[in-house]
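Example 3.
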Amino acid sequence: MSSQAAKAQEILLPVKTSIIVLSLALALFLNLLPWSGFGLLIRPDFVALILLYWCIYWPRKVGFATAWGMGLLMDVADATLLGEHAFAYSLLVYLAIIVRRHVRMFGAREQVWHILPILLVSQLAILLIKVYNGAEFIGWGYFLSSVTGTLLWPALSGLLAILLRLKPEPEQI
Amino acid sequence: MDTQLPPLFKRGPSPLTRLVFFTLLSLLLFVTDARFKYLETFRLSLSVVIYPLQKLATAPGLILSRVSDFFATHTYLTDENARLKQENLLNAAQLQRYQALEQENNELRQLLKARDSFQGNVALAEILYSGRDLFSRRIVIDKGREDSIRPGQAVVDSIGVIGQVTRAYPLVSEVTLITDKDQTVPVQVVRNGLRAVVFGAGEAGGLELRYMPVNVDLQTGDQLVTSGIDGTYPYGLPVAVVSKIERDAAYAFARIFCTPSAGVNQHRQVLVLTSPTRAPENLIADPSSKTEAKTKKARRGN
């Protein structure tokens, strides 16, 4: 990452819808891998992370409707109560929209301290819905997924930034 | 600090309004999905959308196992061959005995003018993946409505019951394992014929016999088989073995822990009993009788 100004310039580059769709599909694919046991416990929610990224950097393109739709797909894939992930992801988008201007001032490593609470809150929402519907709390290990997701954030946002910069944009600049 | 221009034309309602809107939408879905079963078709159509992704996601594991199968060593194969031959011999001996017994049983049944309860129509299915929901114990198998799989059908392995189909999509279906929290299976104790209902304990993959009096005639090691009362599971499939009994006179009921007989978490292939089991007619006039309620619960799978 160079200077603050250069970064802001990058942010202004338009992003193609196809890239957003592709990244969301890839995140869904990663979530759908046959995780089980401890792997499932520590699996970061890739869809949540990708949604968070687009909401922070391109809030015009990805918002509540996209997140809610992705949540529904996750609910069907995981065979959970319909609306569970949908609600958690809308909450995530709301928090992302509120803090995004603030978050964008920091580098990827400092952003982590904003990402962790957001992921935790959305996981807590899912937990509360489950417990309300009669599930038992499975222990604090449940929140490990948010921690691993947060650890993945710098790598993920760095990778996406590089990918977007590599894209040839003849009309720009 | 923000270098981007502030939006000159505010587009649409504020984030908070949107959050409230989508929260209400989610709430509506919760209620409709949990209380009424109207959304099944919606779920089915969405499942078709993500089916390719799901299939793709299970591919790497499948390829890995195929490749490792291909490179299986010669000694391993000869060993396995020898073992299988031995097993086959043992099974053949048992099969002969079984055939004799079946014939005898048929004769006896004909004498009694009784109908055989289970014709043995099964579909072999492969487990695609185990459920990714940490709070429930479910698996997804690669057969669906196309292969005449319907919700409520029992799923077994070579040893005994492992679960019940709770949702059948066109190409895959979802099986709730008997160890899922509050999943019920009506059982009978082999030793003394005692009827009971075994509940999934949820955590650590165990089972529990609830609502049994402290002085109940049960011992550790007792075999539990399906009683067939519910009309979902055919009679006589092994379900669990009693592993621990806590009798504390301070409580009204004994705490009885069981371990499932079948390899609930082990196999790749399972059998779905697709033939309709004839539910016994409800002879009791009162629809709110206990058996009825139990059956409903077992069928619904939750």
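The first strand of chain B starts at residue 122 and ends at 130. Chain B touches chain A through 52 residues (CB under 8 Å).
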